[in-house]
Each structure stands twice: as structure tokens, then as C-alpha cells.
From TrEMBL:
Species name: Musa acuminata subsp. malaccensis (Wild banana)
Membrane topology per record: Multi-pass membrane protein
Keyword field contains Glycoprotein: no
InterPro entries: EamA_dom, EmrE-like, WAT1-related
Pfam families for the chain: EamA
GO molecular function, one term: transmembrane transporter activity
Protein keywords: Membrane, Transmembrane, Transmembrane helix
Protein name (database record): WAT1-related protein
Amino acid sequence: MEELFIISGNFLVQVTYGVYMVFLNGVFNAGVNPLFLVVFGNSVTAVVLLPFALAFEKKKWPSRLSATLLSHFLLLSLGGVTLFQALMLVGIKKASPDVASAMPNLTPGLIFIISACLRFEKFDACCWYSRAKIMGTLVCLAGVFTMCFLQGTSETPRLANNWSFLLAKPLTLDKAINRDWVLGCFYLLAGVFILSCTTVLQAATMLKFPAPLSLVVITSVMGSSLTALLQLITEGKISVGPTTMSITSIVAIVLLGGVVMGTCMAFQGWCITKKGPVLVSIFCPIQTVSTVVVSAALLGQIISLGSLAGIVLMFAGLYIVLWAKKNETFSMLYVDAEPEVLVEDVEKPLLS
């Protein structure tokens, strides 16, 4: 029953993330400022997760916080909350929910490359598993670029058969739409790269602060404060934006998003302690499929061949990386001139 609960729960979590991506696209179209959602959304998430952190992780807190640990908290808040979420939300607004949900599939491969460069993880050019992880990362990256540049803007497929509209539409409008699309894809790619860097830093931080839920609460509060400061600097005030939505609706959206995301993160944290990060990562592509299906059903967006090809490449690349990392956990070594035996690798990969 526990395994059934874990599998069905992870499936539901990824579907929820996919629907939430499409929901955010509608919120942004109504004029809500993405930075505003980062500020108040993370505040709600911190409030939701705080009781869980106090109940399950209070004994794991260190007696004192060192300057190094505080600097890690600051970097995780700046990168993993403020920059990552701001770039992802702006990317959703300029590109599409489909591409935004597909980009995080790059994370395992990027984490491997960053970890190998920093020597947090082994990289042996002669090892087949290391080569497989590089190949999987490249395949996944090819899928992302295929989806970004072959799918095109969400407006183009719906208007492909309307020749009179295409002839009447100003050329400058086409250029502006395409420029926003490419810029949105760049924002999403930059956000995923920052997420990968902060994930490596988070793995190092967890060695001295083994309390994942508490870490999310701390970084959410600090990230919310940093994002509020960023909005004050760039816009002069903390504003909801020129939206047509009522304040009541916006507050309800923020509360709903914070509660749902906080609950999903708490569940995934529990699953990681039970089965490990690899099992949770395997379900990530379901988010992309859910987003594409919901976008097609609710927004009328055409699922193009470029989009399908990109999804297939990303799934293939992601599972190649996860398969290689899972099989790399154990290696064949000689011990005291005895026959080969399976022993656990000293440098355990971050995602296995």
C-alpha cells in the first residue's frame, strides 16, 4: 500500500504541476506581475511547510549556524528562489507553459556536468556510464532546442490556415512575437541552469544541515524578501501589476498556489527519504505531457510535430541519464586480490 501511495502520489503531483503551469499562463495574461507571485507565493509556502519542519526536523537542526552555512542559505535563496522562479515565470509569460514544463528535464544532466567540473562527482572518460550520462544530457538538450525552435509561437499554429489574417498582419508584430518567444526560451534555459547550480550547492549544504523541509522554509522566507527588494529596486514599489483581476481573486490564487506547491514539495521530500531522488525524477516527464494536453484542451494550442519530437528526445535523454546514474551506484572493484565484488562507490552521485 505504501508503494502504491508513493507511485500514485508522484503521478498526481506531476499532473498538478502541469495544470499549475497552464493556470499561471492565464494569470499572467490577466496582467499579474510575476515578481509579485514570487514574493507572496513563497511566503505562503513557508507558512505551509513550517509545521512539518517543526514536527519532523527540529532535532536535526544544528546548535549554531556558522557563517558558511548562512552564506549557503543566502545563495540558495538568491539563486533557487528569486532568480530561478522569476526567470521561469517570465519565461512562461513570454514563451509557453509547454516549454516551461519541459525545461526542468535538463536538470539531472546539468547537475552531473556541474558536479563533475567541481569534482563533487566522479567522471571517468573510460567509464561507459559516464559517457552515457554525457550522451543523455546532449540528447535532452537537443530535445529542448527542438521544442523551442520547431514548435514556434503558440499563436502561429492556430492561424496557419487563415491566409487573409496572415497577409493583413503587420510584419513587425510577427517579429515581436518571435522575439518574445526566443527571449522566453532563453529565460527558461537560464533558470534551469541556475536551478542546477543551486541543487549542487543544496547537496553540499545538506551535509551540515540535514533538514530539507526546514531548508525550504528558510530559503522561501529569504527568497521572498530578496524578491521584494528586487521589485522595489526595479519598479519602485511592490505591485500586483496592471491586472484586470480583483484583489480577492489574486489573494485566493496566491494562497491556493502556496498551499498546493507546499503540499507537493512536502510529499516529494517524504518520498525521497523513502525511495531516493531517482524515483521522484522518473515521474518528471509526466508534468510536460500534462501541460501539453491541458494547453491543447483549454487554450486550443496545436501540438506540432516539433513539440512531439522535442518531448520524445527529452524523455529519452532524461531516462538515459537516470539509468546511468542508478547503475553507477555500485562498481566492480578488486579487494585484497580477491575476486571482484560489488561495493558501494565512495563518491555517491548526487541524484542516486
